[in-house]
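Hi L., both proteins are below.
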Amino acid sequence: MNKILSAIGVGVVALLALTACGTAAAETPASTAAAVEAGNLDALVAAAKKEGTLRIYGQIPEASMTALSNDFQKKYGITVEALRLGGNTLAQRFDTETQAHTPSADMIVVVDVQYLATAAKAGSVVAYSKSGVADLLDLPKEAVFSDYDAPSVQVLDTGFIYNTDKVRKSEIPTTWSALEDPSWKGRYCAVDPGTSVNVAHSFWSVGQKEGADALKKLGENIGRWYPNVIAMNEAVAVGECQLGLFSAKFFVAGMQGNGAKVEFATAPSSVPPLVSAAVAAKAEHPNAARLFMEYLLSKEGNAVLNNPDTGSIGPWDMARLPAGFSAPTPDDFQRVHEATPDVIKALGL
């Protein structure tokens, strides 16, 4: 049976359960999968089926994780336990469990490609070029972020989410200064940049283009702050806030499919999140993890997750990325990391 777990309510229980399991299985290195002949998908499938199960931590929406897990299990008969963790929670939990040598995720799917590069250097995940998955796929060159040795799972078109009962399309601001108007005070919301490197990057980018004073004025008008984008999106849907900053068209499309009265609009500027994935270096089920990663990056599997028409671009559709798109460099992330305290202060948090 496929199991999709919510981070709310089960997080502490799951962590205790994992801790109680002991350390022997968790110390099985993912390199044990090296016994599977490189580039031999049939051998990998056989080894993965022998392991029989797989544990994933992900930052993508729960509905997407469910669809991927169900399709993978149907295809291979391997049980998937997937846990969605928003904001910085995934990295914190994975790092804590890995350092404590307690069972953790076999693979992670994150909206922070810089974290994967850092984790690979620390030895907690396996870099893409060393995972064996690259030998099974012929991804387009531009679908591998060479600065991070990590594959592109998903690039998201990012902008505003708004409640169509509360905001008219004609009201959507086309400049950041428009949101400084008193008529917007308290009507829009955002994710706390201290909980998300992507949100911090987006606010930092606004500050670079518009000046620090622009961040101060935005912060003064923001009515509510949320711990992650899912919580913010849900708040917009129920009218708790009328317009949310830095959501994704992909998220909005999924909510519309469930009847939510929300819409997406292009923001004056944005930094598209880069979703990537990696196999844990101490995966308890390394072959199942590699097989899921191969599936996730394949044309077949990735089509379950992505649809360019909804602003969700996969590795096989990189030509559909917005004009002028370029992945943030490690230097960009370093500047954002150093500037985040100043961004938070400027926003009044």
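That was the first. Here is the second:
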Amino acid sequence: MVKVVVIGGGWAGCAAALSAAKTGAHVLLLERTDLLLGTGLVGGIFRNNGRYTAAEEAIAMGGGDVFVAMDANTKHKGFSFPGHKHASTYDVTTMEPLVKKILQNYGIEIRTYTRVVDVVKLGKKIQALVVNDGAEIDGDVFIDATGTAGSMGNCLKYGNGCAMCVLRCPAFGPRVSVTAKAEVKEIMGRKADGSFGAMSGSCKLGKDSINKEIRDQLDREGVVVLPLPEKLQKGSSLGKKACTQYALPEYAANLVLLDTGHVKLMTPFFSIEDLRKVPGLEQARYEDPYAGSVGNSVRYLGMAPCSSSLKVEGVENLFCCGEKSAILVGHTEAIVTGLLAGNNAVA
């Protein structure tokens, strides 16, 4: 039986582990923190626009376990907000245990608190991974699902410093790229102005920190659009976002709030002093990132050069998925690339 080791337990890594297991492999999933799903712990949007078709295709082809779980844990479905039609949101506060149980039901071994720090390589093949306690973990095939966000040094260099986001680098150690450790030169995303990386596109507010009227509307409809006074409109922040699909004029003229269990504020950052000038948000507070007043995590700083099969160039037994494989935004893209990488790693 082929042994597949997946590094990174975000949506992409979970999907890769699931797909590899369903293809007949013994699968070990390594996650450096205490929880799976990564940014999926604070994301929550799916089935919006073309992602609806992608989810249905994944389900039809036998890789839909995670989409079925997301559908079962939906807070709102079929609603629209600027630039997006027929969106759904899942409950970010309860999603992770459901996904973990699905993986365990397929016999996938999950190791949390396990941070890869180096690789053992012979020629063009990875022989083993070295983890934070010094142990070596061998495998036949490896899948890099470590993402492209952070670390703290990158957020300082290319962003506004560590925003204290859900990735929690200070507590669990910064992201380590298996691709880079395998001596493959990574690709850095560059914006039109020549700067590198882009900020995550949303913040999360505590639901009990907004007024009851807005909270009730979110519970009913899933979305609230709050017009901003002209002096508070910040069109310059649109170009900083990873999610260019949200870089629309409506997001400069309004605050768009979505109900994902938290209140998802569709802007990379917004001064808390200005936020509290908006009627209904006088007591608002950030839950992710904690420094949402000044910045957010920076992404797209380490993508792997790979083929259409998601095999990393220059390493015979390394695949990649999620943001590691391309400039992708969205849980759906992460899951679909994970499903492909997991299947192709075994096939």
